[in-house]
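Dear support,

I submitted the protein below through the web form. The confirmation email said the job was done, but the results page showed an empty box. After a refresh the structure appeared. I'm attaching both so you can tell me whether what I see now is the final result or a partial one.
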Amino acid sequence: MCEKCVELDGKIAHLKALSPNVTDELTLAGMALLTKHYEDQKRELHPEQK
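What the results page shows now:
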């Protein structure tokens, strides 16, 4: 895995670890969008992988 993907995986893991402790719906929605954005970035970096 490339260095950028490792960085993105760390960010995704951090957001997923925080989400059970967050009760604000707007914040949770923002965190979900950010997680999706990071996952999309990973797919763009390696489009040949599924």
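Response: this is the final, complete result; the empty box was a page-load delay. Residues 25-45 form the longest helix (21 residues).
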